[in-house]
């Protein structure tokens, strides 16, 4: 079976993303690997996000706009995409991130060659203008359940999952941090580990005022994941949380 025969389903939650959405779309359309479908799930945006998607969808039938009837958050939006996805492989990209043109091709080739079911890549940090803040956020070569609890740095926009090997899945219905909660759930329930393709294939945009940019919110979100979603005892929460804080500081040095 050749690489080109495998459909990749790309999933993106969209909420008031007009500032950066065009750059994101262009980075997907420009991929060297072309056998994909893209499900953009509009979470009741009240800006021009929908018209931007519609414009691109008219020119490219692989792009699908899905509208939620009520604002429900990224977990519900991503789960709607997962429900409708037809591909064996699932990839995610947030509506303000940017992929390198060879992202899908290299990651899919890596997964097939190494027979991996769950992979992620390194990434860079960029600001709202697209200027580089940090050229490389380097991650461990692989992460299992314990490792991910210590270092929750797998960026959602870098992940690719083989549903034929892992099986179908949905994200936990939490407003914040559902991506990390999903990776932990898959590792714990499906007994899988995630492996890194050590190249910068995604540019992660730090936007002032966003959920991901709020450091205090991130701390609370991670603690909630440990204590309430993973149901870890207090001493384990404290142990893993101390490692998480250290790694979070290290990534931004």
Question: Can you walk through the features of this model?
Answer:
The protein is α/β, with parallel strands linked by helices and 253 residues long. 39% of the residues lie in helices and 23% in strands. It has one domain: Spore Coat Polysaccharide Biosynthesis Protein SpsA, Chain A (Alpha-Beta Complex), CATH 3.90.550. The protein has helices spanning 21-29, 49-59, 74-84, 103-114, 145-150, 163-166, 178-190, 215-229, 234-251, and strands at 8-14, 36-42, 63-67, 89-92, 98-99, 118-126, 132-137, 142-143, 160-162, 194-205. The radius of gyration is 17 Å and the shape is globular.
Q: Kindly identify the CATH topology.
A: Spore Coat Polysaccharide Biosynthesis Protein SpsA, Chain A
| Average of per-residue pLDDT values | 94
Q: Roughly how many Å apart are the termini?
A: 43 Å
The description of the largest β-sheet is: 10 strands, mixed
Gyration radius over CA: 17 Å
Give me the secondary-structure topology.
Blueprint: E1 8-14, H1 21-29, E2 36-42, H2 49-59, E3 63-67, H3 74-84, E4 89-92, E5 98-99, H4 103-114, E6 118-126, E7 132-137, E8 142-143, H5 145-150, E9 160-162, H6 163-166, H7 178-190, E10 194-205, H8 215-229, H9 234-251
Parallel strand pairs: 1-2, 1-4, 2-3, 6-10
Antiparallel strand pairs: 4-9, 5-10, 6-7, 6-9, 8-10
Helix pairs in contact: 8-9
């Amino acid at each position: 079976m050749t690489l080109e025969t495998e459909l990749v389903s790309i999933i993106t939650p969209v909420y008031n993303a007009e500032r950066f959405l065009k750059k994101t779309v262009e980075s997907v359309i420009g991929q060297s690997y072309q056998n994909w479908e893209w499900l953009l799930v509009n979470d009741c945006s009240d800006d021009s996000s929908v018209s931007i998607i519609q414009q691109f969808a008219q020119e490219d039938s692989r792009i699908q706009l899905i509208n939620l009837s009520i604002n429900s958050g990224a977990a519900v939006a991503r789960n709607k995409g997962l429900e409708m996805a037809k591909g064996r492989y699932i990839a995610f990209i947030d509506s303000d991130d940017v992929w390198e043109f060879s992202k899908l091709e290299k990651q899919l080739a890596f997964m097939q060659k190494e027979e991996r079911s769950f992979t992620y890549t390194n990434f860079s940090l960029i600001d709202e203008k697209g200027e580089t803040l940090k050229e490389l956020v380097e991650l461990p070569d692989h992460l299992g359940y314990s490792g991910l609890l210590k270092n929750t740095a797998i960026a959602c926009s870098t992940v690719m999952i083989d549903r034929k090997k892992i099986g179908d899945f949905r994200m936990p219905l939490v407003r914040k941090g559902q991506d990390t909660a999903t990776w932990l759930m898959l590792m714990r329930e499906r007994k899988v580990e995630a492996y890194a393709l050590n190249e910068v294939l995604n540019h992660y945009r730090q936007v002032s005022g966003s959920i991901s940019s709020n450091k205090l919110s991130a701390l609370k979100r991670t603690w909630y994941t440990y204590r309430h979603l993973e149901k870890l005892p207090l001493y384990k929460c404290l142990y893993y949380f101390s490692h998480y804080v250290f790694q979070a500081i290290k990534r931004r040095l």
